[in-house]
Amino acid sequence: MFGRRPAQSDNTKYYDILGVPKTCSADELKKAYRKAAIVNHPDKGGDPEKFKELAQAYEVLSDPEKRDIYDQYGEDALKEGMGAGGPSMNPFDIFESFFGGGASHPFGDFGRGSSSRGRRKRRGEDVVHPLKVSLEDVYNGTSKKLSLSRNILCPKCKGKGSKSGASGRCGGCQGQGMKVSIRQIGPGMIQQMQHVCPDCKGSGESISERDKCGQCKGGKVMQDKKVLEVHVEKGKQHGQKIVFRGEADEAPDTETGDIVFVLQLKDHTKFKRKGDDLFVDHSLTLTEALCGFQFALTHLDGRQLLVKANPGEVIKPGQSKCINHEGMPMYQRPIMKGNLYIQFQVEFPEAGALSPDQCLSLKAILPSRSAPKLSQATVDECEETILYDVNMEEETRRRQQQHQAEAYEEDDDEDAGGQRVQCTQQ
């Protein structure tokens, strides 16, 4: 970030809080903080605000880069880099880094309890995977076994990364995991940046080579393969999630996230699903549409449904029929089902398929025409026309393109005409 050099502000406050001179060494800072923190610890009846101020002062002055910025420009120069001037570490964590969690802790278990209350585990990220399923899978229900790779805490060192189970504070960032750097980029202008510590990669910890765990090499986690059995219940919808709690990547001091499978329903060649209902198209010949039909429809569970219409029950093109309770099972209520809708298409004979004699036979059988019969005189007075086949979708598209082209031409004519008038006026 870029900004003007901050005005000189108080750069002695932190030294006064710790009771040390500005020329104090790192060891003198540690001794002063240790003594004052024990006296002011809240578990010993100390002032919580004073305890936080001590942690803030020590965190800044123990970091050479932050101390240099503070000595030159004061507390204001650290605000953007440290978040409104507050400590980037929990004050109890700073205190714990001095005394640890062993028997030497000055407050025993009581003091450690306060420290643990001050820490909150961050939650790891969820891992999301798409899971493709067929319509048969969600109709009948199914189970799928999936092998996944994930990180787990090293079983040998329990995620500590070291043989001894201990780790030191990174000297590069003083345990912060982040480093703040500042440089002058021009007269009265400085650049201040915060970046992950390259030494500890943001962990704030340092493990010696000799103490690194032999199995994870100090990495604290290892790759592991796990087989998950995913149960897809009947009636689940596209986009629904199946969650495995706490099965994502493990990491030290982190609440493990979830593995989430998102159902992706594949298209079916015959059936279409809308909610809990199923839809299917079926073509009939003209004879079947007029004289009755029957056929076997193979359902998603392999059952054969007999679909039929009695002679004389005329089926019109585009007409739909419903079979109740033969649709999808309802999610978490699988004994209840939606409906199955069949939409019928009627295939008419091709042109020229019927002979004149057949046409006369059909005319005698089929209901009489409702239109009035034309007299020969009327026919003689009419102009004869020719019918052509047409695709209405293509015809509509062609007409739209034609209207757009005509509209552009009109705009061009108006622009040209306006310019001619203007030229005339000049």
TrEMBL record:
The reply to whether Metal-binding figures as a keyword in the UniProt entry is yes
Which InterPro entries does the record cross-reference, listed alphabetically? Answer: DnaJ (IPR012724), DnaJ_C (IPR002939), DnaJ_domain (IPR001623), DnaJ_domain_CS (IPR018253), DNJA1/2-like (IPR044713), HSP40/DnaJ_pept-bd (IPR008971), HSP_DnaJ_Cys-rich_dom (IPR001305), HSP_DnaJ_Cys-rich_dom_sf (IPR036410)
* The J domain, residue ranges: 13-74
**Swiss-Prot/TrEMBL GO biological process terms:** protein folding; response to heat
- A Pfam family assignment: DnaJ_C
Record keywords: Metal-binding, Repeat, Zinc, Zinc-finger
Zn finger (CR-type) location: 141-225
- UniProt region (Disordered), positions on chain: 392-426
Domain CR-type: residue ranges: 141-225
Identify this protein by name.
Uncharacterized protein
- Taxonomic source organism: Adiantum capillus-veneris
Organism placement in taxonomy: Eukaryota, Viridiplantae, Streptophyta, Embryophyta, Tracheophyta
